[in-house]
Specification:
Elements (H helix, E strand, L loop, with lengths): L1 H5 L2 H22 L6 H15 L4 H13 L1 H7 L1 H6 L1 H6 L1 H25 L4 H7 L6 H11 L3 H25 L5 H23 L1 H29 L1
Helix pairs in contact: 2-3, 2-4, 8-12, 8-13, 10-11, 10-13, 11-12, 12-13
Length: 231
């Protein structure tokens, strides 16, 4: 009976959500980067399904239910963008230049570094959208014909790295503008960086959230046109 329960899609969904909620609570309490849910929850879930001898193909049946919710989550990203319209309008030129430059730089630098390290074409197509948030990155990668497992890991690593060092890099660079800090962190490291930007301040956090949406839009528009020139 226990064996059957472990292989039910509902169990996989419940397992994922419970582990995420627990690790998210730990992260909010201690703000220690290794407690980031993207890191800790992933490690815990991997250990559980390995210890319980659950095949990945079985686990992903439940995971697909969560993946389905990425669609509505993508639409919901329009909320922070709408809330920040006054700030965006008053800084439209600077924000546009920053987001467009940051988005294209992320794609181009990723492709050149990966190619220099001998990455395959599939890998290149799978990491092009790493600086966008997960729902958008998965959609772009699917269109490009990349591997969704690779982009999930690439997005997670990018977000975690940005959350850990993004604010410190801003300090070293001497950037004082709250809008610039938020847009820079959100453009480079999406939700992972935004969680750190929120801790810095309300304006930084909200602008970083808006940058997630804008970066996703820019990346989705330019990737199909510039990728053929980079691989």
């Amino acid at each position: 009976m226990l064996n059957s329960l472990l292989r039910e899609p509902l169990f996989q969904v419940t397992l994922t959500l419970v582990v995420y909620l627990i690790t998210n609570r730990l992260y909010r309490k201690f703000h220690f980067f290794l407690f980031n849910p993207l890191i800790l929850a992933t490690v815990i879930v991997i250990y559980i399904i390995k210890y319980a001898n659950i095949d990945y193909d079985i686990y992903i049946k439940g995971g697909d239910m969560i993946t389905f919710l990425l669609g509505p989550a993508t639409v919901a990203l329009g909320v922070p963008l709408y809330k920040q319209l006054p700030n965006i309008k008053s800084n439209l030129k600077s924000i546009s230049i920053g987001v467009i430059t940051g988005s294209i730089s992320a794609i181009v630098s990723t492709m050149f570094i990966a190619k220099a390290l001998g990455a395959s074409k599939e890998t290149l197509l799978s990491i092009a959208a790493k600086s966008t948030t997960m729902p958008i990155a998965l959609g772009i990668t699917d269109i490009l014909g990349g591997n969704d497992k690779i982009i999930v890991m690439a997005v997670a690593v990018t977000g975690i790295f940005g959350g850990v060092v993004g604010a410190e890099i801003m300090k070293i660079a001497g950037i004082k503008s709250k809008v610039a800090i938020g847009i820079g962190i959100g453009t480079a490291s999406h939700a992972g960086g935004t969680s750190r930007a929120i801790q810095i301040g309300e304006t930084e956090g909200s602008m970083s959230g808006a940058a997630i949406v804008l970066t996703g839009l820019v990346t989705a528009l330019v990737v199909p046109y510039i990728i053929p020139w980079l691989i």
